[in-house]
Design a protein that fits this description.
By secondary structure, the chain is an all-alpha fold. The protein has helices at residues 3-22, 33-47, 54-66, 79-93, 98-110, 120-129, 138-153, 159-172, 178-183, 185-197. The model has no long low-confidence stretch (mean pLDDT 97). The longest helix has 20 residues, at 3-22. Helix 3 packs across helix 5 and helix 5 packs across helix 6. It is 67% helix and 0% strand.
Length: 201
C-alpha cells in the first residue's frame, strides 16, 4: 500500500482512538476501541482470502476504523449515519475525492442491521463486524453486549432471555464471504446448540 494511504490509515486509527476515549460514553462496553481494533484485525484476516485492489483494501480498513465512531452521539440507533459523517469529514479534511469517500461510506452503511452488503468490500466489513459470532470469543463478547444494553436501556436482560435472543440472532445471521463461511460458520452453529442446551427444562 502506498505511503499516502498508510498515512491516512494511521491518522484514522488515531482519530478513532481519540473519539472513543474522549467522546463515547463509558457505558458502551462492547462498542468501543477494543471492538474496533478487533474488526480491523478481522478485516485484515478476511482479506487474505481475496485478491483485492489496493484501493479496496484501503476502503475496508478505513471503514473498519470509523464504522462505530458514531456512538459518540450517545445513541445505538442510526449510529451508522453519524459514523458516515465522521468518516466523510475526516476524508474531506485530507481533500480526498468522492471516489474515495463513497466506497468508505457505503461500507459503513452496509454494517447497519440487517446487513445488506452489495460489494466484496462491503461483505468483508460486515463479516469482520460480526466475526466473533463464529469464534471462541463469542461468550465474552455477547456478555459485554448484554452489559452494554442493560446500561443503555436501564433494564435487566435475564440470561434466559438473552440466550433466546442470541439463538434467534445467530440462526438468522449469515456470513457473506466464502472465507468466513468456511472458517466460522460451523463454530457459530455449535454456539446455537450450546445455547439451546442451556435452556431450562
Amino acid at each position: 500500500m502506498d505511503k499516502h494511504r498508510l498515512y491516512l490509515l494511521a491518522e484514522a486509527e488515531s482519530a478513532a482512538t481519540t473519539i472513543f476515549s474522549e467522546q463515547v460514553k463509558p457505558l458502551f462496553v462492547f462498542h468501543n476501541i477494543e471492538h474496533t481494533r478487533r474488526v480491523v484485525r478481522a478485516a485484515g484476516e478476511i482479506m487474505t482470502g481475496y485478491e483485492l485492489e489496493e484501493s479496496d483494501r484501503f476502503t475496508i480498513l478505513l471503514s473498519a476504523w470509523f464504522h462505530d465512531t458514531g456512538f459518540n452521539a450517545g445513541y445505538i440507533k442510526n449510529h451508522e449515519t453519524q459514523s458516515i459523517k465522521i468518516a466523510t469529514d475526516f476524508l474531506t479534511q485530507y481533500q480526498e475525492s468522492d471516489d474515495v469517500i463513497s466506497p468508505v461510506t457505503a461500507c459503513i452503511a452496509a454494517t447497519r442491521m440487517p446487513q445488506k452488503p452489495l460489494t466484496i468490500p462491503e461483505m468483508i466489513i460486515c463479516d469482520a463486524d460480526l466475526f466473533h459470532l463464529g469464534t471462541d470469543d463469542f461468550p465474552a463478547m455477547t456478555e459485554l453486549l448484554r452489559q452494554e444494553f442493560q446500561q443503555y436501556f436501564g433494564k435487566i436482560f435475564p440470561k434466559e432471555d438473552w440466550d433466546n435472543h442470541n439463538i434467534d440472532f445467530l440462526t438468522k445471521h449469515r456470513y457473506f464471504t466464502t472465507y468466513c463461511q468456511t472458517k466460522l460458520e460451523s463454530r457459530k452453529v455449535e454456539w446455537i446448540k450450546v445455547l439451546g442446551q442451556q435452556r431450562p427444562g
